[in-house]
Design brief:
- It is a single chain.
- The chain is an alpha/beta fold and about 160 residues long.
- It is about 55% helix and about 10% strand.
- The protein has nine helices and five strands.
- Helix 1 crosses helix 4 and helix 3 crosses helix 5.
- The chain is globular and about 45 Å long.
């Protein structure tokens, strides 16, 4: 399964020590240079080191965009989100990993399948890589400052019987 990622799924999983979930599930994850630059600027040292390790091991792969990073008129996102969406379209990827609501909406409108860090945790729980999702969400909140809407959290926890 081919995956392209925006910054947040990679950085958040790296911060909580779960970056390996992406390699285990997708074998290789592609990112545009703009996302690479955002990841290099992370203030969390251990997460930055884990990401550098993934790049060195060549399962996190920086790809060039064939076109300048710009979305169709009327759509406005940050550089990393825009580039990740364009790369996903360019590669005809199976899934775009992106957490930000507006970015997910734009990607869906452009015909892309999307997933995010919470979906990756559900997958990890179902694959028995983790005991529960609740503790991982708590770590995301505490360590990464990740916001999870209460209704979405309840839905996710219901999906895994927690």
């Amino acid at each position: 399964m081919r995956a392209v990622s925006n910054t947040s799924p990679i950085s958040n999983l790296a911060i909580i020590g779960r970056l390996d979930f992406l390699q285990r599930r997708y074998q290789r994850v592609h990112i545009p240079q703009q996302v690479r630059e955002e990841l290099a600027a992370l203030s969390h040292r251990a997460a930055r080191q884990a990401i550098e390790g993934a790049l060195t091991q060549h399962w996190l792969v920086v790809e060039k965009l064939a076109e300048a990073p710009a979305l169709p008129a009327g759509l406005s996102l940050d550089r990393g989100e825009t580039a990740a969406i364009l790369l996903a379209r360019q590669m005809n990827t199976d899934v775009l990993l992106i957490d930000e609501r507006q970015g997910r909406e734009v990607a869906r409108r452009l015909g892309l399948a999307v997933a995010g860090v919470l979906g990756e945790l559900v997958y990890a729980r179902n694959a028995k890589w983790i005991l529960n999702v609740r503790d991982e969400i708590a770590r995301l909140r505490q360590d990464a400052g990740f916001f999870v809407d209460a209704e979405i959290e309840r839905f996710i926890l219901d999906q895994v019987g927690e």
